[in-house]
Protein backbone atom coordinates (compact mmCIF):
# COMPACT_ATOMS: atom_id res chain seq x y z
CA UNK A 1 0.00 0.00 0.00
CA UNK A 2 1.22 3.51 -0.83
CA UNK A 3 2.77 5.51 2.00
CA UNK A 4 0.44 8.35 1.03
CA UNK A 5 -2.83 6.38 1.11
CA UNK A 6 -4.81 6.30 4.37
CA UNK A 7 -8.19 5.32 5.72
CA UNK A 8 -8.36 8.58 7.66
CA UNK A 9 -6.30 11.78 7.80
CA UNK A 10 -6.69 14.18 10.72
CA UNK A 11 -5.77 17.79 9.95
CA UNK A 12 -4.67 19.15 13.32
CA UNK A 13 -2.73 17.48 16.14
CA UNK A 14 -4.48 19.02 19.13
CA UNK A 15 -6.48 17.08 21.75
CA UNK A 16 -9.22 16.11 19.28
CA UNK A 17 -6.87 15.30 16.43
CA UNK A 18 -4.15 13.36 18.20
CA UNK A 19 -6.52 11.41 20.44
CA UNK A 20 -8.80 10.66 17.48
CA UNK A 21 -5.83 9.53 15.41
CA UNK A 22 -4.56 7.20 18.13
CA UNK A 23 -8.01 5.68 18.62
CA UNK A 24 -8.52 5.23 14.88
CA UNK A 25 -5.17 3.45 14.59
CA UNK A 26 -6.02 1.23 17.56
CA UNK A 27 -9.22 0.25 15.73
CA UNK A 28 -7.24 -0.91 12.71
CA UNK A 29 -7.55 2.15 10.46
CA UNK A 30 -4.50 3.33 8.53
CA UNK A 31 -4.17 6.78 10.05
CA UNK A 32 -2.21 10.01 9.53
CA UNK A 33 -2.16 13.26 11.45
CA UNK A 34 -1.01 16.52 9.87
CA UNK A 35 0.14 19.29 12.24
CA UNK A 36 1.72 22.60 11.24
CA UNK A 37 2.84 23.83 14.68
CA UNK A 38 6.02 21.78 14.80
CA UNK A 39 4.86 20.08 17.99
CA UNK A 40 1.82 17.94 18.72
CA UNK A 41 -0.77 18.81 21.34
CA UNK A 42 -2.34 21.88 19.73
CA UNK A 43 -3.09 25.14 21.48
CA UNK A 44 -4.03 23.32 24.68
CA UNK A 45 -0.69 21.66 25.27
CA UNK A 46 1.63 24.23 23.69
CA UNK A 47 0.18 27.65 24.56
CA UNK A 48 -3.00 27.00 26.53
CA UNK A 49 -4.22 24.54 29.13
CA UNK A 50 -0.91 22.94 30.08
CA UNK A 51 1.53 25.88 30.30
CA UNK A 52 -1.12 27.97 32.06
CA UNK A 53 -1.62 25.23 34.66
CA UNK A 54 2.13 24.98 35.16
CA UNK A 55 2.26 28.72 35.90
CA UNK A 56 -0.88 28.55 38.03
CA UNK A 57 0.75 25.85 40.16
CA UNK A 58 4.04 27.74 40.49
CA UNK A 59 2.32 31.02 41.36
CA UNK A 60 -0.01 29.25 43.80
CA UNK A 61 2.97 27.79 45.67
CA UNK A 62 4.61 31.22 45.81
CA UNK A 63 1.42 32.80 47.14
CA UNK A 64 1.08 30.08 49.78
CA UNK A 65 4.66 30.58 50.90
CA UNK A 66 4.14 34.33 51.05
CA UNK A 67 0.68 34.49 52.64
CA UNK A 68 -0.28 31.10 54.09
CA UNK A 69 2.77 29.30 55.46
CA UNK A 70 2.92 31.41 58.61
CA UNK A 71 -0.49 30.13 59.69
CA UNK A 72 0.94 26.61 59.61
CA UNK A 73 3.91 27.58 61.72
CA UNK A 74 6.29 27.63 58.77
CA UNK A 75 8.58 30.65 58.74
CA UNK A 76 10.13 31.89 55.51
CA UNK A 77 12.55 34.66 54.78
CA UNK A 78 13.97 36.32 51.70
CA UNK A 79 11.18 35.01 49.48
CA UNK A 80 11.48 36.05 45.83
CA UNK A 81 10.36 35.06 42.36
CA UNK A 82 12.85 33.59 39.91
CA UNK A 83 10.69 34.09 36.83
CA UNK A 84 13.29 32.69 34.44
CA UNK A 85 13.33 29.37 36.29
CA UNK A 86 9.55 29.34 36.56
CA UNK A 87 9.21 29.83 32.82
CA UNK A 88 11.85 27.18 32.12
CA UNK A 89 9.88 24.68 34.19
CA UNK A 90 6.72 25.54 32.25
CA UNK A 91 8.55 25.00 28.96
CA UNK A 92 9.95 21.67 30.11
CA UNK A 93 6.50 20.43 31.10
CA UNK A 94 5.23 21.27 27.61
CA UNK A 95 8.24 19.71 25.87
CA UNK A 96 7.96 16.46 27.84
CA UNK A 97 4.28 16.11 26.97
CA UNK A 98 4.59 16.95 23.27
CA UNK A 99 7.46 14.49 22.95
CA UNK A 100 5.30 11.94 24.73
CA UNK A 101 2.57 12.28 22.09
CA UNK A 102 5.10 11.60 19.33
CA UNK A 103 5.99 8.43 21.22
CA UNK A 104 2.34 7.43 21.37
CA UNK A 105 2.04 7.96 17.61
CA UNK A 106 4.98 5.63 17.00
CA UNK A 107 3.59 3.05 19.43
CA UNK A 108 0.17 3.07 17.73
CA UNK A 109 1.54 3.38 14.17
CA UNK A 110 0.03 6.78 13.43
CA UNK A 111 1.84 8.60 10.62
CA UNK A 112 2.83 12.04 11.94
CA UNK A 113 3.27 14.51 9.09
CA UNK A 114 4.61 17.95 10.15
CA UNK A 115 3.25 20.61 7.83
CA UNK A 116 0.22 22.66 6.90
CA UNK A 117 -2.60 20.63 5.43
CA UNK A 118 -5.41 21.75 3.17
CA UNK A 119 -8.15 19.86 1.43
CA UNK A 120 -7.34 19.90 -2.29
CA UNK A 121 -10.55 17.98 -3.02
CA UNK A 122 -12.72 15.42 -1.21
CA UNK A 123 -10.40 12.50 -0.53
CA UNK A 124 -7.16 14.46 -1.00
CA UNK A 125 -5.09 16.45 1.50
CA UNK A 126 -2.17 18.48 0.19
CA UNK A 127 0.51 19.13 2.81
CA UNK A 128 3.04 21.97 2.65
CA UNK A 129 5.74 20.14 4.57
CA UNK A 130 7.57 21.91 7.38
CA UNK A 131 10.82 20.52 6.00
CA UNK A 132 10.02 21.91 2.54
CA UNK A 133 8.14 20.63 -0.47
CA UNK A 134 4.67 19.18 -0.72
CA UNK A 135 3.07 15.81 -0.14
CA UNK A 136 -0.30 14.66 -1.42
CA UNK A 137 -2.27 12.30 0.82
CA UNK A 138 -5.34 10.35 -0.23
CA UNK A 139 -7.89 9.27 2.33
CA UNK A 140 -11.36 7.83 2.39
CA UNK A 141 -12.06 10.09 5.39
CA UNK A 142 -10.66 13.54 6.21
CA UNK A 143 -11.16 15.05 9.68
CA UNK A 144 -10.87 18.78 10.35
CA UNK A 145 -9.49 19.09 13.88
CA UNK A 146 -7.74 22.45 13.65
CA UNK A 147 -9.14 23.95 16.87
CA UNK A 148 -9.43 27.66 17.51
CA UNK A 149 -7.43 30.86 17.69
CA UNK A 150 -7.56 34.07 19.70
CA UNK A 151 -10.47 36.37 18.96
CA UNK A 152 -9.35 39.94 18.41
CA UNK A 153 -10.99 43.15 19.62
CA UNK A 154 -11.62 46.03 17.21
CA UNK A 155 -9.39 49.01 18.03
CA UNK A 156 -6.95 46.86 20.02
CA UNK A 157 -3.97 45.51 18.08
CA UNK A 158 -2.23 42.56 19.72
CA UNK A 159 1.57 42.79 19.46
CA UNK A 160 2.46 40.24 22.20
CA UNK A 161 4.66 42.85 23.88
CA UNK A 162 2.36 45.43 25.48
CA UNK A 163 -0.97 44.14 24.22
CA UNK A 164 -1.09 40.40 24.70
CA UNK A 165 -3.11 37.37 23.77
CA UNK A 166 -3.14 34.43 26.17
CA UNK A 167 -0.03 33.18 24.34
CA UNK A 168 1.95 36.32 25.19
CA UNK A 169 0.66 36.32 28.76
CA UNK A 170 2.33 32.93 29.25
CA UNK A 171 5.76 34.27 28.39
CA UNK A 172 6.25 37.67 30.06
CA UNK A 173 9.88 38.35 30.95
CA UNK A 174 8.99 40.22 34.14
CA UNK A 175 6.04 40.67 36.46
CA UNK A 176 4.07 43.73 35.36
CA UNK A 177 3.15 46.37 37.92
CA UNK A 178 -0.36 46.66 36.48
CA UNK A 179 -2.04 44.13 34.20
CA UNK A 180 -5.41 44.89 32.65
CA UNK A 181 -7.35 41.83 31.55
CA UNK A 182 -9.95 42.52 28.88
CA UNK A 183 -12.57 39.83 29.39
CA UNK A 184 -13.87 38.16 32.54
CA UNK A 185 -13.97 34.57 31.28
CA UNK A 186 -11.98 31.54 32.38
CA UNK A 187 -8.78 32.33 30.45
CA UNK A 188 -8.57 35.93 31.59
CA UNK A 189 -9.21 35.09 35.24
CA UNK A 190 -6.66 32.29 35.24
CA UNK A 191 -3.93 34.45 33.72
CA UNK A 192 -4.90 37.33 35.99
CA UNK A 193 -4.50 34.96 38.95
CA UNK A 194 -1.00 33.94 37.84
CA UNK A 195 0.36 37.47 37.63
CA UNK A 196 -1.65 38.75 40.57
CA UNK A 197 -0.14 36.12 42.86
CA UNK A 198 3.32 37.08 41.66
CA UNK A 199 2.78 40.73 42.60
CA UNK A 200 0.95 42.49 39.76
CA UNK A 201 -2.03 44.73 40.28
CA UNK A 202 -4.78 43.16 38.15
CA UNK A 203 -7.85 44.93 36.77
CA UNK A 204 -10.47 42.93 34.86
CA UNK A 205 -12.61 44.85 32.38
CA UNK A 206 -15.74 42.93 31.36
CA UNK A 207 -18.42 44.05 28.89
CA UNK A 208 -21.22 42.19 30.69
CA UNK A 209 -22.45 42.94 34.19
CA UNK A 210 -20.95 39.69 35.55
CA UNK A 211 -17.85 37.56 35.11
CA UNK A 212 -17.83 34.00 33.73
CA UNK A 213 -21.03 34.27 31.67
CA UNK A 214 -22.77 30.92 31.37
CA UNK A 215 -21.59 29.76 34.78
CA UNK A 216 -24.18 29.20 37.49
CA UNK A 217 -24.84 32.67 38.91
CA UNK A 218 -24.20 31.78 42.54
CA UNK A 219 -20.79 30.35 41.68
CA UNK A 220 -19.95 33.37 39.55
CA UNK A 221 -20.78 35.82 42.35
CA UNK A 222 -18.76 33.85 44.90
CA UNK A 223 -15.79 33.57 42.56
CA UNK A 224 -15.74 37.31 42.02
CA UNK A 225 -15.98 37.90 45.76
CA UNK A 226 -13.05 35.56 46.38
CA UNK A 227 -10.87 37.06 43.64
CA UNK A 228 -11.67 40.57 44.88
CA UNK A 229 -10.45 39.47 48.31
CA UNK A 230 -7.20 38.41 46.67
CA UNK A 231 -6.73 41.93 45.27
CA UNK A 232 -8.22 41.61 41.78
CA UNK A 233 -10.29 44.64 40.72
CA UNK A 234 -13.32 44.40 38.42
CA UNK A 235 -14.81 46.90 36.02
CA UNK A 236 -18.07 45.29 34.91
CA UNK A 237 -20.49 46.60 32.31
CA UNK A 238 -17.53 48.32 30.63
CA UNK A 239 -16.16 48.07 27.11
CA UNK A 240 -12.70 48.78 25.72
CA UNK A 241 -12.95 50.81 22.53
CA UNK A 242 -9.27 51.44 21.77
CA UNK A 243 -5.73 50.91 22.97
CA UNK A 244 -2.59 52.89 22.27
CA UNK A 245 0.98 52.44 23.30
CA UNK A 246 2.31 55.16 25.55
CA UNK A 247 5.51 55.67 27.45
CA UNK A 248 5.74 53.01 30.10
CA UNK A 249 2.88 50.86 28.83
CA UNK A 250 -0.51 50.99 27.19
CA UNK A 251 -3.51 53.30 27.56
CA UNK A 252 -6.99 51.87 27.12
CA UNK A 253 -10.09 53.85 26.22
CA UNK A 254 -13.11 52.72 28.22
CA UNK A 255 -16.79 53.54 28.25
CA UNK A 256 -19.88 52.05 29.90
CA UNK A 257 -21.37 49.19 27.85
CA UNK A 258 -24.77 50.87 28.00
CA UNK A 259 -23.39 54.29 27.09
CA UNK A 260 -21.93 57.11 29.14
CA UNK A 261 -18.78 59.08 29.77
CA UNK A 262 -15.49 57.85 28.35
CA UNK A 263 -12.33 57.45 30.40
CA UNK A 264 -8.82 56.06 30.09
CA UNK A 265 -7.03 53.35 32.01
CA UNK A 266 -3.25 52.95 31.92
CA UNK A 267 -1.38 49.70 32.49
CA UNK A 268 2.02 48.15 31.91
CA UNK A 269 0.46 45.47 29.73
CA UNK A 270 -3.04 44.49 28.64
CA UNK A 271 -4.33 40.99 27.95
CA UNK A 272 -7.08 40.48 25.38
CA UNK A 273 -9.12 37.46 26.53
CA UNK A 274 -12.59 37.91 25.06
CA UNK A 275 -12.89 34.45 23.56
CA UNK A 276 -11.74 32.27 20.69
CA UNK A 277 -12.84 31.65 17.11
CA UNK A 278 -12.57 28.56 14.89
CA UNK A 279 -9.32 28.16 12.98
CA UNK A 280 -10.41 27.41 9.41
CA UNK A 281 -8.30 29.77 7.27
CA UNK A 282 -6.20 28.19 4.54
CA UNK A 283 -7.79 24.75 4.81
CA UNK A 284 -9.40 24.83 1.38
CA UNK A 285 -12.85 24.40 2.86
CA UNK A 286 -14.67 26.78 0.52
CA UNK A 287 -12.95 25.27 -2.51
CA UNK A 288 -13.97 21.78 -1.36
CA UNK A 289 -17.55 22.95 -0.85
CA UNK A 290 -17.57 22.55 2.94
CA UNK A 291 -20.31 24.72 4.43
CA UNK A 292 -19.51 27.15 7.24
CA UNK A 293 -21.76 29.50 9.18
CA UNK A 294 -21.36 33.29 9.39
CA UNK A 295 -18.89 32.96 12.27
CA UNK A 296 -16.71 30.42 10.52
CA UNK A 297 -17.90 27.36 12.43
CA UNK A 298 -18.51 24.10 10.56
CA UNK A 299 -21.95 22.47 10.99
CA UNK A 300 -21.96 18.65 11.11
CA UNK A 301 -24.50 15.85 11.39
CA UNK A 302 -24.78 13.27 14.19
CA UNK A 303 -21.79 11.42 12.72
CA UNK A 304 -19.64 14.61 12.64
CA UNK A 305 -19.80 14.62 8.85
CA UNK A 306 -19.97 17.96 7.08
CA UNK A 307 -22.18 18.58 4.07
CA UNK A 308 -19.48 16.88 1.97
CA UNK A 309 -19.34 13.08 2.14
CA UNK A 310 -16.07 11.86 3.65
CA UNK A 311 -15.14 15.19 5.28
CA UNK A 312 -15.69 15.41 9.03
CA UNK A 313 -15.06 17.97 11.77
CA UNK A 314 -14.54 17.82 15.54
CA UNK A 315 -13.47 20.10 18.38
CA UNK A 316 -13.51 23.88 18.52
CA UNK A 317 -14.54 24.29 14.88
CA UNK A 318 -18.03 22.96 15.70
CA UNK A 319 -20.81 25.47 16.48
CA UNK A 320 -22.89 25.69 19.65
CA UNK A 321 -20.72 23.35 21.69
CA UNK A 322 -18.20 24.09 24.44
CA UNK A 323 -14.69 24.86 23.23
CA UNK A 324 -12.95 22.49 25.62
CA UNK A 325 -10.01 20.13 25.12
CA UNK A 326 -11.66 17.17 26.81
CA UNK A 327 -14.82 17.63 24.74
CA UNK A 328 -12.68 17.53 21.58
CA UNK A 329 -10.96 14.37 22.84
CA UNK A 330 -14.30 12.64 23.34
CA UNK A 331 -15.41 13.68 19.86
CA UNK A 332 -12.18 12.33 18.40
CA UNK A 333 -12.70 8.96 20.07
CA UNK A 334 -16.38 8.75 19.09
CA UNK A 335 -15.67 9.69 15.48
CA UNK A 336 -12.92 7.07 15.27
CA UNK A 337 -15.36 4.48 16.62
CA UNK A 338 -17.96 5.50 14.03
CA UNK A 339 -15.44 5.35 11.18
CA UNK A 340 -14.53 1.83 12.29
CA UNK A 341 -18.17 0.82 12.14
CA UNK A 342 -19.02 0.92 15.84
CA UNK A 343 -21.85 2.70 17.64
CA UNK A 344 -20.74 5.62 19.83
CA UNK A 345 -21.92 9.02 21.04
CA UNK A 346 -20.88 12.00 23.15
CA UNK A 347 -23.22 12.99 25.98
CA UNK A 348 -23.02 16.77 25.75
CA UNK A 349 -25.07 17.10 28.95
CA UNK A 350 -22.20 15.56 30.90
CA UNK A 351 -19.23 17.69 29.80
CA UNK A 352 -17.55 19.37 32.80
CA UNK A 353 -16.02 22.84 32.73
CA UNK A 354 -13.34 24.02 35.16
CA UNK A 355 -11.88 27.42 35.96
CA UNK A 356 -8.45 26.86 37.51
CA UNK A 357 -8.33 29.90 39.74
CA UNK A 358 -8.05 29.35 43.50
CA UNK A 359 -10.60 28.53 44.63
CA UNK A 360 -11.21 26.36 41.61
CA UNK A 361 -14.65 26.34 40.06
CA UNK A 362 -16.12 23.27 38.37
CA UNK A 363 -19.53 22.73 36.87
CA UNK A 364 -21.46 20.11 34.92
CA UNK A 365 -25.03 19.90 33.72
CA UNK A 366 -27.59 22.64 34.08
CA UNK A 367 -27.41 25.77 36.22
CA UNK A 368 -30.22 27.14 38.35
CA UNK A 369 -30.80 29.86 35.76
CA UNK A 370 -31.16 27.29 32.98
CA UNK A 371 -33.58 25.16 34.98
CA UNK A 372 -35.71 28.18 35.84
CA UNK A 373 -35.76 29.34 32.22
CA UNK A 374 -36.83 25.86 31.11
CA UNK A 375 -39.54 25.67 33.77
CA UNK A 376 -38.06 22.55 35.35
CA UNK A 377 -38.91 22.07 39.04
CA UNK A 378 -35.87 21.08 41.09
CA UNK A 379 -34.56 20.56 44.59
CA UNK A 380 -31.24 22.06 45.67
CA UNK A 381 -28.67 20.74 48.09
CA UNK A 382 -25.79 22.94 49.24
CA UNK A 383 -22.91 22.20 51.57
CA UNK A 384 -20.11 24.54 52.60
CA UNK A 385 -16.47 23.53 52.76
CA UNK A 386 -16.35 25.46 56.04
CA UNK A 387 -18.10 22.42 57.57
CA UNK A 388 -15.78 19.90 55.87
CA UNK A 389 -13.07 18.54 58.14
CA UNK A 390 -10.44 18.07 55.43
CA UNK A 391 -10.95 21.60 54.09
CA UNK A 392 -10.67 22.89 57.66
CA UNK A 393 -7.44 20.95 58.16
CA UNK A 394 -6.00 22.35 54.95
CA UNK A 395 -7.22 25.91 55.53
CA UNK A 396 -9.23 25.96 52.29
CA UNK A 397 -12.70 26.93 53.42
CA UNK A 398 -13.17 30.54 52.32
CA UNK A 399 -16.39 30.93 50.36
CA UNK A 400 -16.43 27.41 48.95
CA UNK A 401 -19.37 25.03 48.59
CA UNK A 402 -20.87 22.17 46.63
CA UNK A 403 -24.33 22.64 45.09
CA UNK A 404 -26.40 19.85 43.55
CA UNK A 405 -29.60 20.29 41.57
CA UNK A 406 -31.99 17.35 41.24
CA UNK A 407 -35.32 16.88 39.48
CA UNK A 408 -38.10 17.57 41.95
CA UNK A 409 -40.19 14.56 40.94
CA UNK A 410 -37.58 11.92 40.04
CA UNK A 411 -34.55 13.07 42.11
CA UNK A 412 -32.35 12.55 39.03
CA UNK A 413 -29.25 14.74 39.12
CA UNK A 414 -29.55 17.65 36.68
CA UNK A 415 -26.57 19.81 37.56
CA UNK A 416 -23.58 20.01 39.89
CA UNK A 417 -21.57 23.10 40.78
CA UNK A 418 -18.49 23.37 43.01
CA UNK A 419 -16.36 26.29 44.11
CA UNK A 420 -13.53 25.36 46.42
CA UNK A 421 -10.29 23.39 46.73
CA UNK A 422 -9.65 20.86 43.93
CA UNK A 423 -13.11 21.42 42.47
CA UNK A 424 -11.83 20.26 39.08
CA UNK A 425 -11.07 16.84 40.54
CA UNK A 426 -14.17 16.60 42.73
CA UNK A 427 -16.50 17.20 39.78
CA UNK A 428 -15.58 13.85 38.16
CA UNK A 429 -17.81 11.90 40.55
CA UNK A 430 -20.74 14.07 39.56
CA UNK A 431 -20.00 13.84 35.84
CA UNK A 432 -20.19 10.07 36.24
CA UNK A 433 -23.45 10.42 38.18
CA UNK A 434 -24.95 12.47 35.35
CA UNK A 435 -23.66 10.01 32.75
CA UNK A 436 -25.23 7.09 34.63
CA UNK A 437 -28.53 8.88 35.30
CA UNK A 438 -28.00 8.72 39.06
CA UNK A 439 -30.19 10.39 41.66
CA UNK A 440 -29.05 12.58 44.52
CA UNK A 441 -29.99 9.68 46.79
CA UNK A 442 -27.54 7.40 44.94
CA UNK A 443 -24.75 9.87 45.72
CA UNK A 444 -25.90 10.31 49.34
CA UNK A 445 -25.90 6.53 49.91
CA UNK A 446 -22.35 6.12 48.53
CA UNK A 447 -19.69 5.77 51.21
CA UNK A 448 -17.09 8.54 51.02
CA UNK A 449 -13.75 8.23 52.81
CA UNK A 450 -13.17 10.40 55.89
CA UNK A 451 -11.63 12.90 56.10
CA UNK A 452 -11.76 13.96 52.43
CA UNK A 453 -12.98 16.93 50.43
CA UNK A 454 -15.31 14.51 48.61
CA UNK A 455 -17.47 14.25 51.72
CA UNK A 456 -18.81 17.69 50.83
CA UNK A 457 -20.33 16.10 47.71
CA UNK A 458 -22.12 13.49 49.81
CA UNK A 459 -23.36 16.14 52.24
CA UNK A 460 -24.70 18.27 49.39
CA UNK A 461 -26.56 15.21 48.12
CA UNK A 462 -28.01 14.66 51.59
CA UNK A 463 -29.01 18.33 51.65
CA UNK A 464 -31.13 17.87 48.51
CA UNK A 465 -33.72 16.23 50.77
CA UNK A 466 -32.95 18.58 53.65
CA UNK A 467 -31.06 16.07 55.75
CA UNK A 468 -27.31 16.84 55.80
CA UNK A 469 -25.44 15.26 58.70
CA UNK A 470 -22.74 17.85 59.30
CA UNK A 471 -24.51 21.19 58.99
Write the layout of secondary structure elements.
Elements: E1 5-11, H1 15-26, E2 31-35, H2 42-47, H3 49-68, H4 83-108, E3 111-121, E4 124-129, E5 134-144, E6 148-150, E7 163-164, H5 166-169, E8 178-182, H6 186-197, E9 201-206, H7 217-229, E10 233-236, E11 238-246, E12 249-256, E13 263-267, E14 269-272, E15 276-278, H8 285-288, E16 311-313, H9 325-339, E17 353-355, E18 360-365, H10 368-374, E19 378-384, H11 389-394, E20 401-407, E21 413-420, H12 423-436, H13 440-444, H14 455-464
Compact description:
With 471 residues, the protein is of the alpha/beta class. The chain contains 14 helices and 21 strands. It has a five-stranded mixed barrel with strand order 1-2-3-4-5.
Give your account of this protein's structure.
The structure is a single chain. The protein is α/β, with parallel strands linked by helices. It has 3 domains: 186 residues, FAD/NAD(P)-binding domain (3-Layer(bba) Sandwich), CATH 3.50.50; 112 residues, 3-Layer(bba) Sandwich (FAD/NAD(P)-binding domain); 115 residues, FAD/NAD-linked reductase, C-terminal dimerisation domain (Enolase-like, domain 1), CATH 3.30.390. Helix content is 33%, strand content 26%. The protein has 14 helices and 21 strands. The strands form 5 sheets. Strands 1-2-3-4-5 form a 5-stranded mixed beta barrel. A hairpin with a 4-residue loop joins strand 4 and strand 5. Helix 1 packs parallel to helix 4. The chain is globular, with a radius of gyration of 24 Å. The mean pLDDT is 97.
